[in-house]
């Protein structure tokens, strides 16, 4: 990442690449997490994307994770406006806790943010409006919810827009969306959580329309899920996704990034063979701090 050159055009920044629990993971003392317990600089934050429009002097975040405070700080300090960069909204994908727990940082006991815009789908809105402690954020006027509608484009600034795309995922609590972010000449597709590609045939046309792709790469393959019932946490394995999308051009694959990596995923370690296999197949693993130009 180049933090020294001031950016004058809209961009997105990857603020986290891990699954909800991050790396290291709560309670894990296996080889996947011991190096990052010993050396916190090896840690990875949960999946989160920042969007900045330096012309409009605005910014947004997709997801409010357990590391919200660090991710917002990173969004500001890497931007041309530094700590003067306002946060103009938080877009939520769904009601699994690692994707919205960070909203609690806005509470009057902490930031007392005052009227932060939160953009959420109807069931997610219902969850926040009807359950403590989220309801308290609304009652305190620390968050204000704008309801999103399926596929309806929301204009962010003169040159940026965002569109929620409903995807199949364990929808016990809320619906789940990914987002398409559109700049003047570029589109980013962000789908951090999905159950299977079979249930989402629209992915192929979405990939065609998109320049940069950030897609669920929770698990590399079945070998890392020995202790979990996969039916209760379905995700397409990276190995399966690489096979499914193998006919994409090499150039397209170089803009296809796996994100939302579980702490057990060997691709979190760039020296691991699995990580190297992804690159040998021309795909990519998202990196924290990665910047994607949107103009
Ligand atoms: Zn998740
Ligand atoms: Zn671990
Ligand atoms: Zn989820």
Layout of SSEs?
Layout: E1 11-16, H1 34-38, E2 48-53, E3 58-62, H2 68-77, E4 90-91, E5 116-120, H3 122-130, H4 134-139, E6 143-147, E7 154-155, E8 161-166, E9 177-182, E10 187-191, H5 203-209, E11 212-216, H6 238-244, H7 250-253, E12 256-259, H8 273-280, E13 284-285, E14 291-293
Parallel strand pairs: 3-4, 4-5, 5-6, 10-11, 11-12, 12-13
Antiparallel strand pairs: 1-2, 1-14, 2-3, 7-8, 8-9, 9-10
The protein binds zinc ion (3 copies).
- CATH fourth-tier homologous superfamily: Ribonuclease Z/Hydroxyacylglutathione hydrolase-like
Strand content: 15-25%
Instruction: Identify the CATH architecture.
Output: 4-Layer Sandwich
Which H/E pattern describes the elements?
Answer: EHEEHEEHHEEEEEHEHHEHEE
**Percent helix:** 10-25%
| Total number of helices | 8
**How far apart, in Å, are the first and last alpha carbons?**
18 Å
Strand order of the largest sheet: 6-5-4-3-2-1-14
Query: How many domain regions?
Result: 1
Bound molecules: zinc ion
Rg from Cα: 18 Å
Largest sheet: 7 strands, mixed
Mean pLDDT: 94
By secondary-structure content and strand pairing, the structural class works out as alpha/beta
User: Uncertain regions: pLDDT < 50 for 5+ in a row?
Assistant: none
The shape is: globular
Look at the structure and give the CATH class. Answer: Alpha Beta
Total count of strands: 14
CATH topology: Metallo-beta-lactamase, Chain A
Structural account:
- This protein is an alpha/beta fold and 295 residues long.
- It has a single domain (11-293), classed as Metallo-beta-lactamase, Chain A (4-Layer Sandwich).
- Helix content is 19%, strand content 21%.
- The chain is built from 8 helices and 14 strands.
- It has helices at 34-38, 68-77, 122-130, 134-139, 203-209, 238-244, 250-253, 273-280, and strands at residues 11-16, 48-53, 58-62, 90-91, 116-120, 143-147, 154-155, 161-166, 177-182, 187-191, 212-216, 256-259, 284-285, 291-293.
- The strands form 2 sheets. The protein has a 7-stranded mixed sheet with strand order 6-5-4-3-2-1-14.
- The two termini are 18 Å apart.
- The model has no long low-confidence stretch (mean pLDDT 94).
- Residues 94, 96, 169, 193 line the site of one zinc ion.
- One zinc ion binds at residues 19-20, 96, 98-99, 193, 260.
């Amino acid at each position: 990442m180049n933090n020294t050159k001031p950016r004058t055009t809209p961009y997105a920044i990857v603020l986290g690449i891990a699954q909800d629990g991050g790396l290291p993971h709560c309670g894990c003392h296996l080889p996947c997490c011991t190096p990052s317990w010993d050396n916190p600089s090896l840690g990875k934050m949960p999946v989160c994307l920042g969007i900045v429009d330096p012309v409009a002097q605005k910014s947004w975040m997709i997801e409010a994770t357990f590391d919200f405070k660090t991710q917002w700080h990173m969004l500001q300090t890497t931007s041309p406006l530094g700590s003067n960069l306002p946060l103009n909204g938080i877009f939520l994908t769904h009601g699994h806790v690692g994707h919205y727990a960070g909203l609690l940082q806005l509470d009057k006991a902490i930031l007392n943010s005052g009227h932060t815009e939160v953009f959420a789908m109807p069931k997610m809105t219902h969850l926040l409006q009807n359950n403590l402690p989220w309801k308290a954020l609304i009652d305190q006027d620390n968050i204000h919810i704008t309801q999103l509608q399926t596929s309806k484009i929301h204009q962010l600034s003169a040159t940026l827009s965002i569109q929620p795309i409903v995807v199949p995922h364990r929808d016990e609590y809320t619906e789940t969306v990914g987002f398409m972010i559109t700049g003047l000449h570029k589109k980013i597709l962000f789908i951090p959580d999905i159950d299977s590609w079979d249930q989402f045939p629209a992915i192929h046309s979405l990939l065609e329309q998109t320049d940069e792709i950030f897609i669920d790469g929770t698990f590399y393959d079945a070998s890392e899920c020995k202790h979990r019932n996969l039916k209760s946490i379905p995700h397409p394995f990276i190995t399966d996704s690489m096979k499914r999308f193998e006919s994409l051009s090499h150039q397209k694959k170089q803009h296809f990034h796996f994100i939302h990596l579980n702490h057990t995923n060997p691709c979190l370690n760039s020296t691991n063979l699995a990580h190297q296999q992804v690159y040998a197949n021309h795909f990519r693993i998202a990196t924290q701090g990665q910047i994607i130009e949107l103009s």
